[in-house]
Structure formats: structure tokens, C-alpha cells
Design brief:
Elements lengths: L3 E13 L2 E13 L3 E5 L5 H8 L3 E6 L5 H4 L2 H8 L3 E3 L4 H7 L7 E2 L5 E4 L2 E7 L8 E5 L4 E5 L2 E2 L2 E2 L9 H12 L7 E4 L5 E2 H8 L1
Parallel strand pairs: 3-4, 4-5, 5-6, 10-13
Antiparallel strand pairs: 1-2, 2-3, 7-8, 8-9, 9-10, 11-12, 13-14
Keywords: Hydrolase
Pfam families: Lactamase_B
GO molecular function: hydrolase activity
Length: 202
């Protein structure tokens, strides 16, 4: 069975540092016809389940713990009976959203997540958040960057727990090392490629 990447958009809010914004988040689901991994858990369990369909969810992998990426993670975990995975450096952000729940498994640089005939390699890319990670699928020729890299450059670093110098170094060291034709699937907005972003970041 062929591995595929499925996509939808879910709308809701992002809140941090006393401000709230309307946002559209990408939902990414990677797998085959029988099993999959969900990347991030924004806004709506129903929106995510519509992409998952009748497949078995092996994990809910959070690229970072801003509320628009993890808000429905505990409810989704209950619905699909799968572990939530998060880098432990993002606990301060997780705690802002979830005081009664924790994630199940820690992410770390180099962890490999096997699903549906492909492998997602965890790249720790702090800057947007201390525990931000990207997920590289070499055989699919793509990387899921959460809010670390977008079409047009790095993710925002103007809020608590973020650092502009750190995110640029993360991108240079971990993402610009990937092949130029690698497709970048972002947390918000349109896809891009490593080649397209290299010019503005190198």
C-alpha cells in the first residue's frame, strides 16, 4: 500500500501573552490505507478525524506546544487511543493550555517514527518554541516544519519562549541541510521548498 500525505485546514484561535488571534492551521496526516500519524492537533477533533477516516492512528505528533497546535490533543487521544508525542522542552507552553493532562511520549532529536511504510525523523529545531521539532520523511521528499519555517522565512519569534537567533540557526543547521527539492509542509499556509527558502536564509 502506498504511503501518502493527507491535508486539511482547521480554523480557530491562537492565544499567548494575553493576546488572541484568529488562525487557520494545516492538518497533516501521514500513512497508508490502514495506519497513520497525525501531526499536530489544532482546533477541532472532527476536522482531524475527517482526514484520518477509518485508519488506526499510531501517534499524535506535536511540532510544538502553542495552543493552536495542541488544544484538542487530549480529546483526540481519547477518540483514537493513540499517544501524544511532544519535546519536553515545550512543557512551559503545554502547561499554559493543559493543566490536567500531560503528553505520553517525549520527542528528541533523531527519534524515528515508523508509519505506513515510511519513516518520520525528528529534527529538534528550537526558536519558535524551545521544544519545536520538524519531521523529515526522506523517502517522501518532504519535511513537516510546524511553525519553524514558512513560505517566506522563519516562524514568528516575538512572543514568550521564542528566539530569533536560535530559530535561524536551527533552520540553517537542520533544514537547509536537506535536499533542495524537499517539499516543506508548514503549520499554516502554503507549501514551499528548501530551495525556495534557502536564498533568504543562507
Amino acid at each position: 500500500m502506498a504511503t501518502r500525505v493527507d491535508h486539511a485546514v482547521s480554523s480557530g484561535t491562537f492565544s499567548l501573552d494575553g493576546e488572541t488571534f484568529e488562525v487557520d492551521n494545516n492538518i497533516w496526516v501521514v500513512g497508508d490505507d490502514t495506519e497513520c500519524v497525525v501531526i499536530d492537533a489544532p482546533h477541532s477533533v472532527d476536522d482531524i478525524l475527517a482526514v484520518v477516516g477509518d485508519r488506526t492512528v499510531k501517534a499524535i505528533v506535536c511540532t510544538h506546544a502553542h495552543d493552536d497546535h495542541v488544544r484538542v490533543a487530549p480529546a483526540l487521544r481519547e477518540a483514537v487511543v493513540a499517544p501524544i508525542m511532544l519535546h519536553p522542552a515545550d512543557k512551559p507552553l503545554w502547561d499554559l493550555t493543559h493543566t490536567d493532562h500531560l503528553w505520553d511520549l517525549d520527542l528528541a532529536d533523531g527519534v524515528r517514527i515508523e508509519v505506513g511504510g515510511t519513516t518520520l525523523e525528528v529534527l529538534h529545531t528550537p526558536g519558535h518554541a524551545p521544544g519545536a521539532v520538524c519531521l523529515y520523511a526522506a523517502d517522501l521528499g518532504c519535511v513537516f516544519t510546524g511553525d519553524t519555517l514558512f513560505q517566506g522565512g522563519p516562524g514568528a519569534t516575538g512572543r514568550s519562549y521564542s528566539d530569533a537567533d536560535v530559530i535561524r540557526e536551527s533552520i540553517r543547521a537542520r533544514l537547509l541541510a536537506l535536499p533542495d527539492d524537499t517539499v516543506v509542509h508548514t503549520g499554516h499556509g502554503a507549501d514551499t521548498t528548501i530551495a525556495a527558502e534557502r536564498a533568504g536564509l543562507s
